[in-house]
Amino acid sequence: MAALNKCRNLTSLNIHAFKVNYYPRINCKRNLNLQEYHSKDLLRKHQVSIQNFRLLDANLDPNTLSDFKANEYVIKAQILAGGRGKGHFDNGFKGGVHLTKNPSEILPLAKNMIGHKLITKQTPKEGILVHKVMVAESVNIIRETYLSIVMERTYNGAALVASPAGGMDIETVAEKTPHLLKTVPIDIYEGVTDKMANEIAEFLEFKGTMVKKCAEEIKKLWELFVKVDATQLEINPLVETDDGRVVAVDAKINFDDNAQFRQKEIFALDDVSETDPREREAASLNLTYIDMDGSIGCMVNGAGLAMATMDLIMLSGGKPANFLDLGGGVGQTQVSAALRILESDPKVKAIFVNVFAGIVNCATVANGIVAACKENPPKHPLVIRLEGTNAPLAKKILEESGLPFNIINDADEAAKMVVKLAQ
């Protein structure tokens, strides 16, 4: 979505795609991850037209499908990655998406998926284990369109983004055929009016009675967007079927993390099964952990300093193994846990602590490091640079601990030292 955001001047970030090369994005929060069937269920609960579907798990209970009839079925492995249709499984089975008109083929197809790892262009090399398979009615599509509602800083609020060219990368549409992309600001008090919904439906090239049907779906999507505190609701494609329906075939929903307190049911659906355990532990402590592929663990505070730190490491001939942002207001217990999380990465050969304290107290960081190292002696050399609030006291705490720290005030020299120790 980064290219789409750029093309329509959006500033909301897809935080889950956190790295470009070795740079973390400035916003360091992990998105709520919903499986496809969860998103569809939310749409259904808000009266948005979707394909009927059922869900199969490892039990492969045939009763799940006993009352489910369709002319054709689509069987889709449920993982948090794209490219499923062109993927393959670790058991040799090809494709994470299959079509069949024969109900007796559904369970055998699902059996080849559930309990096996699906490998696509967007998964790790070893693939992602499939726990559930969604079985949905296949619809006969006449046309595919694109519709999304996003928070748009240019308009200080939400906006509708629509295109009659759906079912493809919207970034490509924006780049090659910008006249097929329409953005309309939404007044938060008025919402999506009948006039606006009808105009968007006509822009999407719906005709006759289909205009009203599409307009109704657009208004329902707006109601859903508001009720669940979404920051992005993308339907691609929103289709017209041969039996005169407007159906949301695929959906992507992002939520405002600040609304978690009033969207507890939705946030309880968060699927963390595919998330690095270190990242999960860090998130539980209000820390941000990102895995990389080098040999130097990095503990910093703030994404700006993180990027500068990793630049210094790269320029000195090294490569970051991971990145852990302490953020602001961190306590001693969190610092100790942060060091333990960094050391648990088998790629790590040395750790660079680089903190420039404002809100964060250097003495708190120093006490956390000392406590962690006394409880579990460090496996790897530590290079520590602490500047800012209570830096002299922090240095004294580290020196008087009697632990073998490499305390260096100059950032360049500290980076060179940690690269040397990691070799």
UniProtKB/TrEMBL annotation:
GO biological process assignments: succinyl-CoA metabolic process; tricarboxylic acid cycle
Location of the protein in the cell: Mitochondrion
Protein name: Succinate--CoA ligase [GDP-forming] subunit beta, mitochondrial
Cofactor dependence: Mg(2+)
One GO term describing the cellular component: succinate-CoA ligase complex
EC number: 6.2.1.4
Amino acids binding substrate: 301, 358-360
